[in-house]
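User: Last request for today: this protein with protoporphyrin IX containing FE, please.
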Amino acid sequence: MAKETIESDSTDKSEPIPPMQRLLDNHFLLLFIGVVVPTVLYTLWGVMELSQIPISQ
Amino acid sequence: MSVAAETGIIGGIAAKFRTCPATGLKIDIAAQNLIKANAVVAIVFLAVGGLFGLLVALTRWPAVKILDPDLFYLVLTAHGLDVLLVWIIFFEMAVLYFASAIILNCRLATPRIAWLAFILMLVGAVLANVTVLQGESSVMFTSYVPLKAAPNFYLSLIVFAVGALLGCFVFLGTLVIAKDEKTYEGSIPLVTFGALVACIIAIFTLASGAVILIPTWLWSLGYIAHIDTVMYKLVWWAMGHSSQQINMAAQVAIWYAIPAILMGAKPLSEKVSRMAFLMYILFLQLASAHHMLVEPGLSSEWKVFNTSYAIYLAVLGSMIHGFSIPGAMEAAQRANGYTNGVFEWLRRAPWGNPAFAGMFLSLVLFGFLGGISGVVLGTEQINIMLHNTMYVPGHFHATVVAGTSLAFMALTYLVVPLIFQREIIWPRLAKWQPYLFGMGAAGISLFMMGAGTLGVARRHADISFSDATLSFDYPPAAFLMLGLNGMAGILAAIGGGLFVVIIVFSVLFGKKVDASNIVEALGPMPQKRVSDAVHKHGDSGTFHLPGTYILVATFFSAFVLYYFVNWKYLSELWQLG
Ligand code: HEM
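Assistant: Here's the final one, the structure of the complex with protoporphyrin IX containing FE:
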């Protein structure tokens, strides 16, 4: 039989919230990260490389 | 009899609710109506797009060749659009509203904007179909420039995308309302978190779509003289592939939700599952780069970073989910009393419940067929053997058909009783539907991958090249693969058609669901009651999971073996010396 379920609802209110949980609970920060990371690493980096290809004469 | 609606004033805004007899959750009637509308339209377009898919498969079957080449490209364009875009994204809107308003027990933010989103998407979808069927836009769903479609083709996609973007904002707004009105405590439930990840990826996807489709539309109208082909491809895939990652996050959320509702399954570790979702936010969208692996203009650093380093971290996220979900089911089933041997928990799972069967098949087929072949295709060196062959549609039919579409179908079997408040009309037939569709989908995936491994090109109506000046002979096995693909396509079409008919008839003529028959209406369940695990926090609290360890070890062995088999093929492609 499984051990008793741990209910996080019952956490002590005075206990500090771990930074990782704070990040995961900050939905708009996650949205920011989720848009900026691929924009920089995929799109901008890719566009920079493609724009350096010399145009044929 | 359905439960009467009551009006509640929350945050100064009146919203109508009913109480769900199964879960006790308050269901916002506006959210309920929007879920219904989005799901119905999704299913209609699945029927239309699936029919186009069958025609494509029958054309690629050399002995049948049902369409001539012109019509083949028209139908292929319509197929890709209707299923990949319209069916999937409409259903995702229903998932977003379900995972926010329903699971968080709150009212939906700005239902009027949600209806506007729905109308824009519908107008976009209809316009796209009309434009493609008029025949001047057979550019396939990738619409690579310099192929030029009618301006309305691009316009329809822009209108559709704006609608979907509005839907995402309604979802985010609902999260804000739920927090303000304290309808949940602590973090949002895991399933809602999965939907949030889907929404975040959707916003990047749709923004990339706007960046590329608006100039292309202006180009088709003659206002812009030139669009660079490689630049187009780069930005287009930021939309094209990321849209598949929306599916990924949404289907994983469904994989967590169904066992939670039916069996009371809780994740092995919520923290770890959430971290796996964070990996998606950080890395999954970079996978778009594998479409650019053969482009000479991009450096190896860009290719290898985006397709290998980053995407392997996202794949790690998927493998964490792939371990955690069967593990959660095993833990729940053992807690339900199925403790004999290694696999009693799996044998005694509700296989006769189409929601469970569909979900489990989707998980297994996605992992074994779609996941492994995706890693193979995403490896720069191996990709060169398979790029633009039938292997590519083989791979993504395993992900979007056997994986996402089957997961969406599975969820629909719960949405009909819970949201439409109707019983599934032919439960015996419904029991078989996921198996039929799953087998057909697995078949088309495997046979297309088989044909691709033999070098057969994707997007080609006739592999015998009957009217070509220079002939080319594919090995006879390639013809066999395409024949088998046609047969599997028929099976998938029967399974898909059955789904559409069962759901439409259930919604129209199914027996009404109320407190007296709701549990029965949700199909066989081990505990004979609906669990509330889907909107609660907590871990399953055990790691005694021998069955899951064996399943995971089997998966890894298949993965490693298949990966190395492909490197072996590559080593034989160009003989040295
Ligand atoms: C009855 C079920 C289905 C059958 C028999 C089927 C069959 C096919 C075949 C044979 C191709 C053509 C491959 C080629 O020549 O390149 C194709 C393409 C495609 N299918 Fe399906 N399919 C089905 C369902 C679906 C679903 C449900 C989705 C998405 C959720 C989907 C997405 C696509 C896409 C995106 C393409 C590529 C179109 C293009 O190359 O422009 N299919 N399908």
